[in-house]
Structures are given as C-alpha cells and as structure tokens.
C-alpha cells in the first residue's frame, strides 16, 4: 500500500477509535498534561506497528493491546509520577447534605482512587470490564487465557470491595 494511502487509512482509524485511546490514557494518568503525552505516545506506537498489523484480530483488540502496552511501559519509565496515598489519607470534601448526584460523584472519585492502587494488568482488566468486553476479548487483548481473566477479575473485585467498603460505609 502506498504511504499516503496508508497514512490516510491510519488517520481515519485513529479518528474513528480515539475514544478507546482516551479511555486508556484516563485510566493510567490523572494529570491532563500526562494524558496528552500518553495519547501522543500511544498514537506514535500505533503508527509504528500499523504496517505490520495483519488484521488477524479485530482492530479494537489490536489498538487496546498497543495502547495498554504503551501505557504500562510509559508508567514504568515515569519517575515523575507522584505517590498515591491510601484512601484513608485522602482529603475529601463531603457536603453536609449530599444529593444523589454529589454522592455518586464522590463514589466515582473513590472508585478511581482505588483503581489507582491496582497493578497495571489489574487496571487494564478493570477498564476492559467497564467497557463491557467479553472474557474472550479481554483474554485476546491482555494476552492471557479466558479462565485467567475470570480468576483475575474475581480477585480484583474482592480487592476493590475491600478498599471501598469502609469508604462507602462512611458516605452512607
């Protein structure tokens, strides 16, 4: 395929599925500038690997795999990343009489704080689970067996429940 046609096809692909990349960036970076940098790095890695993509899997599976590998690699290299304290150490502004939307937003905030405490693989599995990917799709993207996805997902849910139960009890 001619280089300009390849470039045009790639740009269309990124435009079509950029939400997938943004989700990966949001899962691994809280700072907007870090998210932008990670987005650019993921697109660069996708571009580098695009000519060798054989279309043996779904495009979204390939994109998730490259994006997650890039995010994990970037995370390991990033020594600037601040340490995240435990949930009990976080400062929280709880309104005196929260309405349901404020309570919901607070729960989401805690959920993301708990997800930040997971390993890189666990974060990837949670993100794919929240995207409602099947166990087969998750296994293809992460590179583990379908059974292992189920085992890891159950352990992750238990870990998140352990982290979040005391916090959610306080909110109620």
From TrEMBL:
Statement: the UniProt record of this protein carries the keyword Transcription regulation: yes
Pfam families in the cross-refs: Sigma70_r2, Sigma70_r4_2
Occurrences of domain RNA polymerase sigma factor 70 region 4 type (ranges): 110-160
Regions crossing the membrane: none
Keywords tagged on the record: Sigma factor, Transcription, Transcription regulation
Domain RNA polymerase sigma-70 region span(s) in chain numbering: 13-81
PANTHER family: RNA POLYMERASE ECF-TYPE SIGMA FACTO, RNA POLYMERASE ECF-TYPE SIGMA FACTOR
Family from the record: Belongs to the sigma-70 factor family. ECF subfamily.
This protein's name: RNA polymerase sigma factor
Organism: Rufibacter roseus
């Amino acid at each position: 395929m001619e280089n300009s046609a390849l470039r045009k096809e790639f740009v269309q692909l990124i435009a079509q599925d950029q939400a997938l990349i943004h989700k990966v960036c949001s899962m691994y970076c809280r700072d907007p500038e870090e998210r932008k940098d990670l987005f650019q790095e993921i697109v660069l890695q996708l571009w580098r690997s695009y000519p060798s993509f054989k279309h043996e899997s779904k495009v979204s599976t390939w994109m998730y795999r490259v994006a997650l590998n890039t995010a994990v690699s970037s995370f390991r290299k990033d020594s600037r990343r601040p340490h995240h304290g435990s949930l009990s150490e976080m400062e929280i502004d709880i309104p005196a009489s929260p309405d349901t939307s404020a309570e919901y937003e607070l729960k989401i905030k805690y959920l993301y704080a708990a997800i930040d405490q997971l390993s890189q693989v666990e974060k990837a599995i949670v993100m794919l689970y929240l995207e409602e990917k099947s166990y087969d799709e998750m296994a293809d993207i992460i590179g583990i067996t379908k059974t292992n996805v189920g085992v890891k997902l159950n352990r992750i849910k238990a870990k998140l429940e352990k982290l979040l139960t005391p916090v959610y009890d306080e909110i109620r």
